[in-house]
């Protein structure tokens, strides 16, 4: 497969979709991004790195951080993590409050905001400064020491993050948050604010494609079985109430973020990152989904 040729042609084909998406506006600092931007990168386990579009432009990874935070925390804390958060798709928007009360403060899965807050609470108990620990992991796995938080975006989200605060306080009332809610939110917003470009993100995903062993840092980040588990949850829950459509159209474990990025994993072969800040109604990159659909459809590669 000529990956470079394929992604260059995909970048051309998705251009008409760029105008159809809208950047997230509930975090004002994200609303300023023009939707007329696109980038895609593919990192392969045999050392290839292919990119097209605005591949050097860093963007806020937002909820894509949840996949790495889960990997880091599961590796350290182990199976006990699943006593506090489920593994089932929610079928609800990522920031929904309704299910949580019916289900006694145990979030459906680690990728909706409530679940990621629980994982972050566990990460704080394991690592102390959980957002800095995540930043270190992403620096090591991308091979790029300049990766950092975006404090303007983190502050913008903190100022408008009332739904996340509500989720945090509700779960605290159910005894599913151990630490302070303010500290928890600060770490969560900082992790979401991390900026990376598609090249860096695709490289950082390689350990998920390589059964937990990183070809970038040389570290065994996860056991083979844990890498399977994270990929399974990405497939079923990584794009929220659009997970069924992503599985149908893309056929890969994916994790999206409201910054417009999507990370997709083809186990045993490659990691793919796309970015375009215009979102669809369910909070996933509109052109990003179009690009991933074309990538797996034209290449014939997917987990199925
Ligand atoms: O908590 C939030 O709402 C954001 N920091 C992250 C949400 C997000 O990226 C959802 N992804 N599609």
Automatic annotation (TrEMBL):
InterPro entries: Beta-lactam/transpept-like, Glutaminase. Keywords: Acetylation, Hydrolase. Its EC number is 3.5.1.2. GO terms for molecular function: glutaminase activity. Substrate binds at residues 63, 113, 157, 164, 188, 240, 258. It catalyses: L-glutamine + H2O = L-glutamate + NH4(+). NCBIfam families: Gln_ase, PRK00971.1-1, PRK00971.1-2. Homotetramer. Belongs to the glutaminase family. This is Glutaminase. It comes from Vogesella amnigena.
């Amino acid at each position: 497969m000529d990956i470079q040729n394929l992604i260059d042609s995909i970048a051309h084909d998705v251009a008409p979709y760029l105008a159809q998406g809208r950047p997230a506006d509930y975090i004002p600092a994200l609303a300023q991004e023009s939707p007329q931007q696109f980038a895609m990168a593919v990192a392969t386990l045999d050392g290839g790195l292919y990119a097209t579009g605005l591949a050097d432009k860093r963007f806020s990874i937002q909820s894509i951080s949840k996949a790495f935070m889960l990997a880091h925390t599961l590796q350290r804390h182990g199976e006990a993590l699943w006593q506090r958060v489920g593994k089932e798709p929610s079928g609800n928007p990522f920031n929904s409050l309704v299910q949580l009360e019916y289900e006694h403060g145990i979030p459906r899965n680690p990728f909706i905001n409530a679940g990621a807050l629980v994982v972050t609470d566990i990460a704080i108990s394991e690592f102390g400064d959980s957002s800095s620990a995540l930043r270190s992991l992403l620096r090591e796995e991308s091979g790029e020491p300049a990766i950092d938080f975006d404090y303007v975006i983190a502050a913008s989200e903190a100022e408008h993050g009332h739904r996340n605060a509500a989720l945090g306080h509700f779960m605290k009332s159910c005894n599913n948050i151990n630490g302070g809610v303010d500290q928890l939110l600060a770490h969560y917003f900082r992790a979401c604010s991390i900026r990376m470009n598609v090249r860096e993100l695709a490289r950082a995903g390689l350990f998920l494609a390589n059964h937990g062993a990183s070809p970038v840092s040389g570290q065994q980040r996860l056991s083979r079985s844990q890498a399977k588990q994270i990929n399974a949850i990405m497939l079923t829950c990584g794009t929220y109430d659009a997970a069924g459509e992503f599985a149908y159209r893309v056929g890969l474990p994916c994790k999206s973020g409201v910054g417009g990025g999507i990370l997709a994993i083809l186990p045993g072969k490659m990691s793919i990152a796309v970015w375009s800040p215009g979102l669809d109604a369910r909070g996933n990159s509109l052109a990003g989904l179009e690009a991933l659909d074309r990538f797996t459809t034209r290449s014939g590669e997917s987990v199925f």
